[in-house]
Structure formats: C-alpha cells, structure tokens
Write a structure and sequence with these properties.
This protein is α/β, with parallel strands linked by helices and 326 residues long. The chain folds into 2 domains: 23-146 and 234-277, 3-Layer(aba) Sandwich (D-Maltodextrin-Binding Protein, domain 2); 148-233 and 288-324, Bacterial extracellular solute-binding protein, family 7 (D-Maltodextrin-Binding Protein, domain 2), CATH 3.40.190.170. It has 13 helices and 11 strands. The chain has helices spanning 3-19, 38-53, 71-80, 112-119, 122-135, 174-182, 195-201, 211-216, 242-246, 250-284, 296-300, 303-309, 313-324; strands spanning 25-30, 58-63, 85-89, 137-143, 148-152, 167-170, 186-189, 206-209, 225-232, 236-241, 288-290. The strands form 3 sheets. It has a 5-stranded mixed beta sheet. The protein has a 4-stranded mixed beta sheet with strand order 8-5-9-11. The protein has a two-stranded parallel sheet with strand order 6-7. Helix 2 (38-53) packs antiparallel against helix 10. Residues 1-24 form the signal peptide. One of its GO terms (biological process) is transmembrane transport. InterPro entries: DctP_fam, TRAP_DctP. This is TRAP transporter substrate-binding protein. It holds the Pfam family DctP.
Length: 326
C-alpha cells in the first residue's frame, strides 16, 4: 500500500473511532401503557433527548404495553437491576413506602396545579428520597394520571347524598373501599375489564375513573352520567435503577434528570390534551356532565379515612404541608 493510501486508511479509522459513542449503554425500560398513550410518548421523547445529548452513549428502549410483565413484577426487576428505568403508578408502592399513601388520599389536592406544585417542590423531593432509600430506585420526574370522578347508569350525582345505596365499582384496595363507604355507597371490587358488562347488566350502578379511561373503555355507552367529583388525583413516577444511576458520571446524571423533566412537561401537556379530547367526545355522544364546584361537603366525609391512613403524627404533618402548598 502506498504511503498516501496508508494515511487515508489511518485517517478514516481515527475518524470512525472519534465519531462512535464510547462505552455505549443499552437501557431497557418498563411501561404499562400502549405506545400512543401520553406517558409512552413522553418516555420515548426522554430516550430521544438522552441519546442526542450523550452522542448515543446511552440508548433507552421502552417496552410498552407491559411487555416485561405487570407492575409488581417490574418493581422487583428494577430493584434487582434487571431493568433500568420505568414509569410506575404510585399506589402499588404505598405498602413499601407508606408515606407515599398521603398522595393517594381523597381530596388531598385542590386541583392539578396544586398537585404539580406539591410533587415538583420540597414534598416531592422528600418522598423521592424515601423511595430511593427504601426501594433502590431514583425518582427523576412525576407524571400526571388524571383526576378520577364518579359516573353512573341511571341518575346524575350532584351531592354526597346522591351516592346513598349505589353499588360503585372500585379497585381492590382497602382505601378505595373505605372511600366509597364513607360516601354512603356500596363498594364493589371488580377487575377493570369487567366494568363495562357490569354497568350494562346492572350488576353495578356506577364506577369512577378519569376522562380518558371513561372514554377509551367506552363506559360512556352504558353509564351516561359523569360528575366531576375529582376525588382522587394520584401522580406517577419516572424512575431509574439506583445501581445503574450510581455508575453514571455527574454530567450524564444531569442529562438524564433534565431530559426527564422535559419529558414530564410534555406528558402533562399531552395528558391535558387527551383529557379534553375524551371529554369532548363523550359530550358529543350525549353524556350528561354534572360539574361539582363545591367539594367541601365531599371532603368533610373523608375525616375517618385520614385518621385511619394518615393518623400517625409524621403522616399528619405531611398532609398539613401538602395542604399549605400554594
């Protein structure tokens, strides 16, 4: 080979090494939602931002639609380092980190702005530290999951008195059963997939969920009255396995954290758009929407639940701090 040819080969090799990502990492992430869901789109965007800002040294692949198992399994996988990141619903973590249950209490948030200010502020930071210490996962941002409201088959709900005697589907959870009973209704735990038929056949009189679930599951076809009780607004978390996090450089940690917050802002925007679209669709289909503007009578009935689930002094203090957030 001529000297000129050798120089060209060496130059090409140096260029290839210089342009290739060093120590490329392939990350696997868990997500329960379908690919076009707001959370899924935000997670994909997070991965794009991280890849761009690390020159593809960190490539994040999210497995949507619970491809890697259900959430309880995914929590254990992440704690063991078998998966690298995830978007988790907060409720299943309550038994592991009891302090997080405060965020699931009914009527704890005045509105979605109050929720955002809480989780994006000192209270959210404190809970994130507890999750890291006890579960071996690092919280990088918080996602919306929507305010849940009541919907019924035969009549609108305007006040708590209208709940008397109704059979309302709930999740299999002591807190949710106690919530419905406190309102004077009969709690009926059922798998989510059975709700449509149960409403259609009259096995239950109503259920509760957010606008997108009410619309996408077509519950509006068999329960035509939706009341904006907004009794629950539980956030979700975006987490990274601590073992993986600890091996990152400070610069890469900042890239991931900043990108996660940008993804969170996107998710909240997409969620708000999805809520509006779902509401508009069911209203156009003839659903009767009852706006609940005064939630004080509803919240007043929750005192026994707060005593039962947040009665310890430390939990009461956390409730007071959340309520004081402006």
């Amino acid at each position: 080979m001529s000297r000129t040819g050798l120089v060209a080969v060496v130059a090409a090799a140096v260029f290839a090494i210089g342009s290739a990502p060093l120590s490329a990492q392939e990350w696997r992430g868990w997500n329960t939602h379908v690919p076009d869901y707001p959370n899924s789109r935000a997670l994909d965007r997070w991965g794009e931002l991280v890849a761009q800002r690390t020159n593809n040294r960190i490539r994040m692949r999210t497995f949507h639609s619970a491809q890697l198992g259900q959430q309880d399994e995914a929590i254990q996988q992440l704690r063991l380092g078998a998966i690298d990141f995830a978007n988790f619903n907060l409720s299943p973590l309550n038994n592991l980190v009891p302090e997080t249950q405060v965020l699931t209490l009914p009527f704890i948030f005045r509105d979605v702005t109050h929720l955002h200010k809480t989780v994006d502020g000192p209270v959210g930071d404190e809970l994130a530290k507890l999750i890291e210490q006890r579960l071996n996962m690092v919280v990088l941002s918080w996602f919306d999951a929507g305010a849940r409201s009541m919907y019924t088959r035969s009549r609108p709900i305007r006040t708590p008195a209208d709940m008397q005697g109704l059979k309302i589907r709930v999740q299999t959870s002591d807190l949710w059963v106690d919530l419905i009973r406190a309102l004077g209704a009969n709690a009926t735990p059922l798998p989510f997939g059975e709700v449509y038929t149960a409403l259609q056949t009259g096995v239950i009189d109503g259920a509760e969920n957010n606008w997108p679930s009410y619309e996408s599951q077509r519950h509006f076809e068999v329960a035509r009255f939706y009341s904006t009780t907004e009794h629950s607004n539980v956030p979700e978390i975006v987490v990274v396995a601590k073992g993986r996090w600890d091996r990152l450089s400070p610069a890469d940690r900042e890239i991931l954290r900043t990108a996660a917050r940008e993804a969170s802002a996107l998710q909240r925007q997409l969620w708000a758009e999805r809520e509006k679209a779902s509401r508009d669709k069911v209203v156009a289909a003839g659903v009767t929407v009852t706006e609940i503007t005064d939630r004080a009578p509803w919240a007043a009935l929750m005192a026994p639940l707060y005593e039962k689930y947040a009665g310890a002094p430390s939990m009461r203090a956390l409730v007071d701090r959340i309520r004081a957030v402006q």
